[in-house]
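Example A, followed by Example B.
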Amino acid sequence: MPRLEPIRDTESKWYLPPSVYARTSLPRYVLGAGYVVSASAVRPLFQAALETPFFYLEDIFLTGLVAEKAGVEVIHTSYLMTMNDSDAGLCKLLGTVSAHPLTPDKQRTIWRRLRNDSATSGCPSPK
């Protein structure tokens, strides 16, 4: 996970003013499609969150600032993904834990297709 620079473009949805975050690079973090957290990490993350000033970009807050303060290792996985219709292949989705953004109708459509054995019979087994 590379360290990214804060977005300073005032027109951006993810604009981060220097008054909120003065550092020139963000902590390493993972996108907030979903998180799988070990039981042993919950208490240190919770305690560190109580001691960390509020930050409105939750993925940077939790998996970056808080995890860094708690000394919790963060690992990216492709099983939690951001997707759009162009990359929503059923084989890719078989081993996925979480995907977004999806409308409720799209979620139901994908769920019905994934439950249809013939639609996924040619897919390799998820690892």
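Example B, a separate protein, is given below in the same form.
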Amino acid sequence: MSLLYHILNAIFPRLCFNCDKIVKKEESFLCAECFAKIPIYSTLFCGLCRARLPENKKICHKNSLYVLGSATKYADPIKKIIWELKYNKKTAAAKPLKMIMETYLNKLQLIELISPIGRISPIVIPLPLHPTKERQRGFNQSKLIAETASAKLNLPLVKNCLLKNKNTLPQMELKNLEQRTKNVVNSFFVKNPELIKGKIIVLVDDIVTSGSTLTEAAKTLKSSGAKKIIAITIAKAE
């Protein structure tokens, strides 16, 4: 490490979001002790009722458009880190989120669910932002997380297939499920249906709360010929 780094770190030490302890360079926004305390799930969940799926494949609601995979619960310090990434544009906050995704995928057995159908390989697709919102933010957090999932699962990442054509209000600003559902209706479209026809899609987002956004995206993918959708997120609301 350079002398300049040590000087800057002494003057402006980086603190852990959770405990305010000074963190090491490789620890980013969370110290190792706090990272170790984050509960990481090891199963998939029903996309409708959020119940854990026995053996990761016995779906309790067959009318669910997707199977849900979430690494942990939506609570601090994860909640703080996602906020810093999305709204304070601290892209370094993506590092612990990527580490959490890697840990979850290590624990999760997706072999049967993502095994190729014949010669058709599964693909990873990030949940898109509207172009205006992505320009304002400077990045799409779901793309950052999807890059990790793609590398970990050794699956191709397709970034510009599912697109958003409606600049919706932030879901967190809406009070109930009905408002959130109406907010995202017809807000997605598939640019190249031939890229997803007959395929298993691993759809990646940062968090799932009501599930309205993932449901609308899954509906769009299904209507364009997707075979099966596994939605993977960093966190889910309890």
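On Example B: The two ends are 42 Å apart (CA to CA).
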